[in-house]
Design a protein that fits this description.
alpha/beta, seven-stranded mixed sheet
Amino acid sequence: MDKWLVMSFAIMGCCTCLMAKGEEKRIPAKGFAVFDDSGEFKPFEFTRRPVGDNDILIEIMYAGICHSDVHHVRQDWGKTQFPTVPGHEIAGRVIQVGKDVTQFKVGDYAGVGCWIASCSDCDYCKTEMEHLCKKRVLSFASVDHTEHDEPTYGGYSSNYVISEDFAVKIPQNVPMERVAPLLCAGITTYTPIRFSDTQKGDKVGVAGFGGLGHMAVKYAVSLGADVVVFDITEEKREDALRMGAKKYVNVNKPEDLEGLEDSLDLIIDTIPFQHDPLMYLQMLKLNGEMAIVGLPPNAEVPMIPTSALPMLPLRKVYGSNTGSIRQTQEMMDYSVSHELYPDVKIIPADGKAITEAYQKIIDGEVKFRYVIDMGTLE
């Protein structure tokens, strides 16, 4: 063969190699987005970043609908950048891994929660509390500073690319349709229950009996606590008792509230709208704790008057915000080993169905978590 032809083939081969290394392919994705605060979901096609050396590509099987998703879409917490693909309760199957990945293999189940990256350098990150990092990246409606500031799109979609360090291992042989909400509703309630060192025989109040609240009940009951559930309707009374609560209180019935002062060791406040936290604070025992995990709209933020606190001395109020990856993995393992899963209603991956689910969440008509079956995505 002519030596120049051989050289040409060699040059072409080198160029092809360089192009392969330099032109990493982005991952096609499709799902459902909102394009304004009307809340109407429509089909949306986009791309995700290429799978890096430490990344995994997850084929999404199920995505939970959290009340926080609704707040983002309605711009309850400030301006949202549209289009937005919500979803931070994500469960699926690993279909590709980067060359340096050690924690996952193709075929494993994996979950994605609220956070997908952090700065890695601050005190929080260095102590495995990366969910408190000031530069944390949300799994949707955020900007990923670790990936050229590209917008993040969430789990109401076909796939997700994430560093293995921020993915959660999901065991095999679990009800995947019930696992996804654990990535937010589960960890958000599990963290304060563990932080407050809930023990058998403790008296635990759960304010708000929705997606978060019903998981708080299940975790507290599993630890042997005596649980009192607070809500505003009679429709959930039987559900609370079925899940192991000792008492259900309809706060709109004054007789239900009698005799509760100084009776509780811990209160988990999950309420995502205006309410009176002082009423619950008065129910704490001496040295009791109140963990606030609910996030109401900015226009409906409840207040605790500081003048009331000296009259309720030696009670503690603290906030809790999901949990670290280590804590989330601990929660996942605990939930699976104790068969603690959310009560869910499965809906198809359809824009109209998701839009209707949002309205029912706003109207308080869900028991207890909507989950989108992304396998029905066309």
